[in-house]
Amino acid sequence: MKLDIDGLEVLFPYDYIYPEQFKYMCDLKRTIDLNGPCLLEMPSGTGKTVSLLSLIVAYLMAPQPEGTPRRKLVYCSRTVPEIEKALLELKRLMAFRARALGQEEPFLALGLSSRKNLCVNPEVVKEKWGKAVDAKCRSLTASWVRAKAANAKVTRHGRHDTGRRGRSQGIGPRRVAPTPAVAASQDDDEDDDDDDDEGHAGSDHGAGDDAMDVDEADEAPPALCDWFEGLENADESAVLPMGVYTLDELREWGKDHMMTSIVVFDEAHNIDNVCIESMSVDITRPILEASSRSIVSLTEHLDRIRQNDAEKLRNEYERLVEGLRALADARETNEVLGNPALPDDVLQEAVPGNIRKAEHFIAFLRRFVEYLKTRLRTQQVVAETPAAFLMHLREMTFIEWKPLQFCAERLSSLVRTLEITNIDEFAALNKVAMFATLVATYPQGFMLILEPFENDNPRMHNPVFHLACLDASLAIRPVFQRFSTVIITSGTLSPLDMYPRMLNFVPVISETYPMTLTRSCFCPLVITRGSDQVAISSKFEVRNDPAVVRNFGQILIDLAKMVPDGVVCFFPSYLYMESIVTMWNEMGLLNEVWKHKLIFVETPDAAETAVALENYRRACDNGRGAVLLSVARGKVSEGIDFDHHYGRAVVMFGIPYQYTESRILKARLEYLRDKFQIRENDFLTFDALRHAAQCVGRVLRGKTDYGLMIFADKRYARNDKRDKLPKWMRDGFSAATSNLSTDMAMAVAKKFLRSMAQPFDPADQLGTSLWTLEDVHKHMRAELARQARNVVDDVHAVHGHGGEMGGLEDEDSAMMDALYDDDESSMDVVAYGGGFV
Questions:
Q1: CATH code, residues 522-760
Q2: Confidence label for 248 from pLDDT (cuts 50, 70 and 90)
Q3: In a designed cystine with 116, which of 130, 286, 338, 712 is the match (CB 3.0 to 4.6 A)?
Q4: Which cofactor does the UniProt annotation name (predicted)?
Q5: Cβ atoms within 10 Å, residue 778
Q6: Domain parsing of the chain, residue ranges
Q7: What local confidence, expressed as pLDDT, does residue 171 receive?
Q8: Could you give the CA distance from residue 295 to residue 369 in angstroms, rounded to a whole number?
């Protein structure tokens, strides 16, 4: 389908389009033209990703005036499955554009994730922890490794030109971490795998090493990785990185692509929590002990490089005098340790003299670590501001706040100078350096909380020093400043007015879209009481009441009997789920469920959850049916789709409020009230309902899909709770389904499932919830006519109907006739703009 949206030709890769998709693309076009941030709430399962990509790719590929820098797309999502779906949609879109245009377009997309997800080097991926993978991968990608490889005349695939050593010593194949842009090159080189060198730079145990003499080993070129070469080829392409919610990389990337890129935050319903997590640091005793060991290791590395290559230390000193900006420019691609966001004025300053020399900086870190150790010996809870912490630090150690501000960047510079590739052992010290930088840089928006005991065991002394970020806008502000267009979109953003207040920005467009349906394919129900008329709720006072637990279990039993295939249940927390399941087992309720469906449980362990999810899908596929017990804010609630028979019903047991006794949460609530005038109860309810909506929204992944959305808690019957759900979800409620007992809800659910089981012809959606190009034409003419009437009404309101404006009605009629008499057969494309001209 070819659309013309406000002068932009958009190729949509399907023959039909949803009304929501068309309106969504129109608002996206307006947002890009206005060069500002926007908030767009798109219903689940209505093709948000393909609509977004179709419009933005068309914008990127449109002819630009000569000399105009080519814009890029930065597409950000929270999970790997979401990025995989986005890349798949993009692949289909580009194939469609190639067919429609008759030629391939020069367009490159890179799907970025952590090294643990992408690396295929067998020596690297066998590591269990991500930090260990990072350390081994660093040995293939550090700038000094690449420089040595260049001096040794290594080809782009990391092979020695002679190829002699690989063949003569029988070294096995080496795989490198690919990107989608370079993955094809590996298939082309499978026949040459015997020529590859195995192992990592600096390793002492690569295959065949025992057959090499010492001189030959010293001359051996280090192995390289194609990853960075793939990134360098992406200068004129659209880049789609995953994990944007690690905002440091996006902020750094934005320095070189400022105001020329379109940033999309997809599934951004909890973007404020992600921003806060990215700038919060927790310090514990094991971290400080590991930091002390890292300081000893740094001292040893420093002594070695002082003896072998003192010139590197002198060069580093000169860069530090020039300031952090020059230091950041010299960092290239080997950013070994991430640093918090620093204001631009700090980046222009020179590093303080007392930490410029490496030995002085190591002594400085040692003093700071020892100070933190003394603070952790306390037996009382302490809450203080950054200013109070810095004052106490100065009184006890004579450490000023200015050097602390540069700790993270200074440590990163030192690790690069010492050419340390095994950065895993410095992760704890890096966390301490980030703690120092953040506490010295931001006097407001942070709170330091020292908790000496564990929450579940008040007698166990296990102190934790929290540097808690309270202001989400601090992390996202550089993104808004450095990128011209920032699109925040999700299926659950309601209420929309909360995000601009928390993130401190003014959206140019803020819109939520209804879901147009030919048939009601989802049925939201609120169950407030059991069949015995006992109210059900997850409130602390009654959550473990046997009557409440029994009624929760009866809901699950009834659904297991009635609903075909898969049922997904969500609980507010892991602790509550364990408590409920234990009581269900003691009451014998699980045995009743097992008679009809298998039961699988999500756990905090990612590997166990993946196995449970795979077996759950297998049980649904073979007709046995299954129940999946999950947790709101868990892994299953984010990015896992239960489309069609994998989720015919989703139950939200209770309201997923945060743990309100958390001192960090209390500090944030107080800050939101004082800074943004957001009341505590409003934020807690908003946060709980957006996660509840995200959970139940997993059941609906398209207009041909159907399912039950069950809210099992009496508090959902209140309007102040339901009003915070997305509009498309609220529209499905009625007075008859907002306050039900268990038996009444099951009767409604049974009727709904019967109606959904009737034959359904997708052609019935045409003209209502599914548009052809002709339907888009009709909508356009109606929209232009509506805008014309608004203009006429405004003129009449200002000038009246008489006097000089007496002939206006005739002119209006002529204009309206011209709109309606337009020959639609002559329209090859549809044009839609933001206003009537």
A1: 3.40.50.300
A2: low
A3: 130
A4: [4Fe-4S] cluster
A5: 14
A6: 2-113+484-512, 116-146, 272-472, 522-760
A7: 28
A8: 10
